[in-house]
Amino acid sequence: MKIVTYNVNGIKARLPRLIEYLNEGDADVVCLQELKAPDEAFPIADIEAAGYGAVWHGQKSWNGVAVLARGSQPVERQRGLMGDPDDEHSRYLECDIVAPDGGRIVVASLYLPNGNPRPGPKFDYKLRWLERLRVRAGELLAEEVPAVLAGDYNVIANDDDTYSVRAMAEDALMQPESRAGYRRLLGDGWTDALRTRQPAGGVWTFWDYQAGAWQRDAGFRIDHLLLSPSAADRLVDAGVDKAYRGREKASDHAPTWARLR
């Protein structure tokens, strides 16, 4: 089973690239972020025509997440994170997926706040959101089922996850507090799939549109798939479908994946 996280940076603008990816690849589950569209604008007909069922949680102009499953319909478990009744951002969607062998896997698509500028309320919100995610992640661990938390974490976890530590030193993505929140998840028992398979670093999932970042390969890794212990036991491989970032009018993120037995 290939599980993908893909920040599409606007599903209306990137729909041709998304449909290409679904038709050309072998993804069984695709977690989308940054739909930037309300629920009623989600292109479900196009996605179903490509052979995928979908659950989505949209928001006009901003945020938005979805879970797609090839040949089946994801079953929604939870929409949004608990712990802040005033948080109306569409950033978390959790579903049950029936695996090809008939087993069940829990997959969440998440879009963690960027946190810039910092210091300030946006950075504070990012850190609070990380802690709320940790609470939900702990509940999933207690269920002892295979689970994957897939998404754009907006966290550069290690120095070798960026083309330039100096360039990103003041960014919210690489602050000690952001990294500490991410590492607490790992300490609780979650496995960073891509890091496990490619421990030397130097693997990017995002290249900015500015300053020729793609052409210079000046990227960084912020799209992660965290695996619960029973999912990590099934990990076969993980990687980045980098070539899709180079296509015309592509997202600034590349699809990032983990393959499980």
TrEMBL record:
Keyword Manganese: yes
Site features described as Important for catalytic activity, chain residue numbers: D223
Cofactor(s) required, per the database record: Mg(2+); Mn(2+)
Leading EC class: hydrolase
Gene3D superfamilies in the record: Endonuclease/exonuclease/phosphatase
Pfam families linked to this entry: Exo_endo_phos
Active-site residue list: Y111, D152, H253
GO MF term list: DNA binding; double-stranded DNA 3'-5' DNA exonuclease activity; endonuclease activity; metal ion binding
Keyword tags: Hydrolase, Magnesium, Manganese, Metal-binding
Annotated site, Transition state stabilizer, chain positions: N154
BP GO annotations: DNA repair
Record EC number: 3.1.11.2
Residues bound to Mg(2+): N7, E34, D152, N154, D252, H253
UniProt domain Endonuclease/exonuclease/phosphatase: residue ranges: 4-253
Manner of cofactor binding, per the entry note: Probably binds two magnesium or manganese ions per subunit.
Record site: Interaction with DNA substrate: H253
Record flagged with keyword Manganese: yes
Family of this protein: Belongs to the DNA repair enzymes AP/ExoA family.
Protein name (database record): Exodeoxyribonuclease-3
Organism: Sphingomonas aerophila
